[in-house]
Amino acid sequence: MTDLRTIAAIATAPGAAGIGIVRLSGPRAREIAAALCGRRLRPRHAHYVRFRDHDGSVIDDGIALLFAAPASYTGEDVVELQAHGSLPVLRQLLARCRALGAEDARPGEFSERACLNGRLDLAQAEAVADLIAAADLRAARAARRSLEGEFSARVEAIAADLLAIRVQVEAAIDFADEPLDTLGGEALRQRLEQARGRLRDLRAAAERGRRLRDGLHAVLVGPPNAGKSSLLNALAGSERAIVTAIPGTTRDLLQETLQFDGLELTLVDTAGLREDGDAIEREGMRRARAELARADLALVVLDARDPEAGLRALDADLDPVPGRIVLHNKADLLAPGAGAPDDGALRVSALTGAGLDALRARLREAAAAIAPGEGGFSARLRHVQALERTATACAQAAERLQGEQLELAAEHLRLAHDALGEITGRTLPDDLLGHIFSTFCIGK
Ligand SMILES: Nc1nc2c(c(=O)[nH]1)N(C=O)[C@@H](CNc1ccc(C(=O)N[C@@H](CCC(=O)O)C(=O)O)cc1)CN2
Ligand SMILES: Nc1nc2c(ncn2[C@@H]2O[C@H](COP(=O)(O)OP(=O)(O)OP(=O)(O)O)[C@@H](O)[C@H]2O)c(=O)[nH]1
Ligand SMILES: [Mg+2]
Fold this sequence. Notes:
Keywords: Coiled coil, Cytoplasm, GTP-binding, Hydrolase, Magnesium, Metal-binding, Nucleotide-binding, Potassium, tRNA processing. The chain is built from 14 helices and twelve strands.
């Protein structure tokens, strides 16, 4: 047992619900439960009981459940007091637990204990939080896979490989007068190349998992008056944004969430980009550019009657965005029989609704290309960055191995191995651990 405190928290969402749960974990959970329930609990048995206050008055009736250590979520004794989902009742239960010696759990403390007791690794514990926060079915499935340990298993497989390579390199150091190739150097280099290939695949998958977790972020950009706000309204099916014939109408960012096939897409309307404009409009444009910098997908809205001019002015801003759909809006104003755009652009009309179904299909495709497909797992920016550091260290190791600088190669392999360990929590500074769990919700 890593901690002698017994912690308690309301584990269910606040608000009226059929059932609400107060959860306890720690060495005193059993005796606190016995005092509250008026009887001792048998492990893994659903007891129907009355929860009583200090004066014997009934707080609520409900189910009490004991998970005896180590067969519990945290690995410690865990008790669940399953009451009616009434916030005043749950608060009173929690207050009674406190009076009997429990302390309020910090956010994420149950999962932190699960981690410290080896029930979950760090990436799995993070997946629990991501599962709870998942906005759509795909995000939830991806988080489930990480929770089952798929991501961790791939990380640890590469880590094991790097460790084995390092052991061989260290062994070769002891035979410094012999050329590496007589010591199986070529096989060693090949093995490292293979590990780097697997690392590349894992990085790409983790990056997709991160995008899914953060949600797909599409930004409407283009010159003033092209019809960005009109398109947001048309896609959202409501008059969310102000639309006028005056260029420079939109200044603030306006956000709307759309659901496609169980996938959530955040669509952001921005101020039209142009050279001039008053101070407010310039601030709007600054925000538009900042929004673009973190976008997965740019929806470039141009006036169908003169698209080229609009696009040229935007090019530099669009560069860093991974996905792009170019829209020629106001198609209803084109002369009949105008030829189709030749650059893959989509002709639409926010006014008549023409082309919007095709746009929805494109959005769906773009979303599918950016986010993990079936079988993908969830990941976080923290993981992607650790994988990048691993890749850099592996590249260095390969270079040193090529140059027969074995000590340096071994050192870079050690760094690579440590960076991977940060993902699962095998190697991690304590303060980072606290920081990660503090972002969880209370009772988790
Ligand atoms: N009522 C309730 N539902 C819940 C949870 C909970 O804590 N309470 N969970 C909380 O997140 C999730 C399930 N997670 C859990 C993980 C492990 C164990 C557990 O008792 N494990 C033991 C026994 C395994 C077995 O009997 O097969 C073990 O692993 O040794 C319980 C819940 C989702 N649903
Ligand atoms: N005929 C026609 N007019 C449109 C269409 N889409 C938008 N408009 C009109 O174009 C004008 C500008 O539309 P907005 O949606 O405000 O344009 P915007 O791109 O958001 O403009 P800013 O916020 O100023 O950057 C309005 O008068 C709209 O009614 C369209 O498909 N066809
Ligand atoms: Mg606008």
